[in-house]
Amino acid sequence: MELSKKGLGKSSISPKKEKALVIFQGKEIRKIWHDNKWYFSVVDVVAALTESPAPRQYWGVLKSRESQLLTNCLQLKLLSSDGKYYSTDCANTESMLRIVQSIPSKKAEPFKMWLAKVGHERIQEIENPELAQKRMKEIYRQKGYSDDWIEKRVRGIAVRDELTDEWGQRGVKTQKEYSILTSEISKATFGLTPSKYKELKGLKFQNLRDHMNDLELIFTMLGEASTTKIARNKDAQGFFENKDAAKRGGTVAGVARKELEKESGEKVISPENYLEQPDKTKKLEK
After folding, report:
1. Hey, is 103 helix, strand or coil?
2. Is 21 helix (H, G, I), strand (E, B) or coil?
């Protein structure tokens, strides 16, 4: 998964865990844990409540008409549909409820209850981190993913988290640097940058890894786990030394991928995605 942030105060948890997606009635809403509170993307909430084809414009009109709505909003960095991070109007639960009152929508009351539920779940997850993982698995099951795919995806998240922690401790500071290092691993592993990989799979704003098959996930993990190992053993410091480690780690996975393709006679890289047909269904058909 995000390090460079603008806004008041500092976050209390590691960068990789600050940003997440939650689902409200099938709509994805971006959120960030900041100053010990959840902050939600106002534009995403507007889109969920109004189903407007232009939620940014809707929010622009709303805040120009009622300027006090901006009083408790913060500009925080969130992932956009183009894969980059932009300063976005975000509001905590209390402020969001005030904004919701200004939106004429039948969904307002269920949304208020949903916000309270999200806050309660966060408190539970702080007390018992295993609950967060269980909820994530359940979301993937609801989307139609098989249990074995989910286990690989969850393991991949853990491997990624370990790598980003390592980068943070070794002087990698900005989101741009994180993106470049991730791209180096991907190029060495698959011969494709993440953006080109998404193009191959016909994806736009979707998470690339949510549309990888088992082998793609495995080789992604291998590249990132190898990078972590190499960075530690070589005590890589700063962006450029970690960039070299990223290339080397990705190459380890790339060599293994090519060897498997040679022995199996099949390509690991696939243009398939799970936009219309879930992982579980495709496996049953095969």
Report:
1. coil
2. strand
CB 145 within 8 A of CB 278: yes
CA dist., res. 215 & res. 257, Å (int): 9
> Quick one: CATH architecture of 15-127?
Roll (3.10)
Q: Where in the chain is the domain with CATH 3.10.260?
A: 15-127
What are the distances in angstroms from CA 78 to CA 2, 3, 127, 201, 238?
8, 10, 26, 23, 24
Residue pair 47/62 in contact (Cβ under 8 Å)? The answer is no
Beta-strand pair 37-41/19-24: unpaired
Closest among 19, 16, 31 to 224, alpha carbons compared = 16
Q: Cα torsion at 275, 277, 283, 284 (round to 10°)? A: 170
- Phi and psi torsions of 27, nearest 5°: -100, 135
pLDDT tens, residue by residue, 15-74: 333 445 666 777 788 988 888 788 999 999 988 888 788 989 999 988 888 888 887 799
pLDDT per position as a tens digit, 122-175: 666 665 666 667 777 888 888 889 999 999 999 999 999 999 999 999 999 888
User: Taking a C-beta distance cutoff of 8 angstroms, is the pair 72, 13 a contact?
Assistant: no
What is the Cα–Cα distance from 261 to 59, expressed in whole angstroms?
50
The amino acid that residue 229 corresponds to is K
* Sheet containing 74-79: order of strands: 19-24, 27-34, 37-41, 85-92, 74-79
Backbone angles phi, psi at 131, to 5 degrees: -65, -35
**Model confidence over 80-119: pLDDT tens digits?**
877 778 899 999 887 888 888 788 777 777 777 776 676 6
Tell me, what DSSP letter sits at residue 148?
H
